[in-house]
Amino acid sequence: MEKIPSVKTCVINTGNILSLNDITRKSGQNPSEELTEAINITIKEYKNGSVNGTQNSKLVIHRPSDDLRVKIEEQALADLKIGLKIFLNNDSKGLIQEAIEEGFATLKVPCVHNVVLQYKKDKLIEAGDDISSLKNIWSVLEEYVKNEKISQIGLADVEEATFRNVFEWATIKPSIIQINLATCCVVPPTLQSFCKDNDVQLLTHSDPSGSKDAIFVMPVDIPGFIYAGAVAAGGVLGYYRAGSIPSLAAGLLFGSALAYGAYQVSQDPSNYSVQLVTSSILAGVMGYRFYNSGKIMPAGVVCALSGVMIVRIALKAAGLTERKIT
């Protein structure tokens, strides 16, 4: 292999990763591993002398067997929604412009449907978002939209407050926000509502991230699921002991409803209506049965559990046990 000439810029174009058999044959790889392997394969082909990618002061490394252009040409450009995602750790306007133009040149298209920006300064990865720098490079994206080269622009992996700040400030609003699945369990309901009210696409992704800390974390409603399991188990126990089909049916019905309610609360802590209504019905029915029979099992126990759940929901609704979002 000849010595690589001195260059100022190096572009590594892996092309269509799905066309790399060495990657598609391996199951269970995460996006970081797939990207790393794709880069290694692309560089290996360049080292083998299969590609001459030196262009003036820029070195372009790509695979000669890549079928990306073929895939694009199979469809009319108007029928495609091509998106770019740009990762930056520098707020240079020239850098983001260069990245966008390189994307156009690589795909050989005059415009794309959307561009999503992930911006984090290396030294500030653990210190929150640099809003002033983010706004500086956001203006570049706005110009591309005004020139009809990009239809939609968005942000990835920013805090909710940052996204709201940019949204209120920007002339051309971000219409996309991406949340990393690797660092997010459940998206906060406040962000969900904001996106719904402002027609913002709320998307998830699993791209490599430089930060190991979670942006949004909300735990599963474990007490709710335990309560649902206890109610269902009570119905099964009633059928086992006395052969009562009504007890079995009621236990499974209410247990399923409570499990669904617990799932809803896990997704959105403010969505507790199913859990509250079901618990209230059980508290009333079982309380009446306990009053008439005096039996602790199952009427007394289920009534007590239902009462505890109602109190728990009331406290959460009042904000006294609000979960923290880190």
UniProtKB/TrEMBL annotation:
<dbReference type="InterPro" id="IPR044890">
    <property type="entry name" value="TMEM14_sf"/>
</dbReference>
<keyword id="KW-0812">Transmembrane</keyword>
<protein>
    <recommendedName>
        <fullName>GCS light chain</fullName>
    </recommendedName>
</protein>
<keyword id="KW-0317">Glutathione biosynthesis</keyword>
<feature type="transmembrane region" description="Helical">
    <location>
        <begin position="215"/>
        <end position="239"/>
    </location>
</feature>
<dbReference type="GO" id="GO:0030234">
    <property type="term" value="F:enzyme regulator activity"/>
</dbReference>
<dbReference type="Pfam" id="PF03647">
    <property type="entry name" value="Tmemb_14"/>
</dbReference>
<feature type="transmembrane region" description="Helical">
    <location>
        <begin position="245"/>
        <end position="263"/>
    </location>
</feature>
<dbReference type="GO" id="GO:0017109">
    <property type="term" value="C:glutamate-cysteine ligase complex"/>
</dbReference>
<dbReference type="GO" id="GO:0035226">
    <property type="term" value="F:glutamate-cysteine ligase catalytic subunit binding"/>
</dbReference>
<comment type="similarity">
    <text>Belongs to the TMEM14 family.</text>
</comment>
<comment type="pathway">
    <text>Sulfur metabolism; glutathione biosynthesis; glutathione from L-cysteine and L-glutamate: step 1/2.</text>
</comment>
<dbReference type="GO" id="GO:0006750">
    <property type="term" value="P:glutathione biosynthetic process"/>
</dbReference>
<comment type="similarity">
    <text>Belongs to the aldo/keto reductase family. Glutamate--cysteine ligase light chain subfamily.</text>
</comment>
<keyword id="KW-1133">Transmembrane helix</keyword>
<dbReference type="InterPro" id="IPR036812">
    <property type="entry name" value="NAD(P)_OxRdtase_dom_sf"/>
</dbReference>
<keyword id="KW-0472">Membrane</keyword>
<dbReference type="GO" id="GO:0016020">
    <property type="term" value="C:membrane"/>
</dbReference>
<feature type="transmembrane region" description="Helical">
    <location>
        <begin position="296"/>
        <end position="315"/>
    </location>
</feature>
<dbReference type="InterPro" id="IPR005349">
    <property type="entry name" value="TMEM14"/>
</dbReference>
<dbReference type="InterPro" id="IPR032963">
    <property type="entry name" value="Gclm"/>
</dbReference>
<comment type="subunit">
    <text>Heterodimer of a catalytic heavy chain and a regulatory light chain.</text>
</comment>
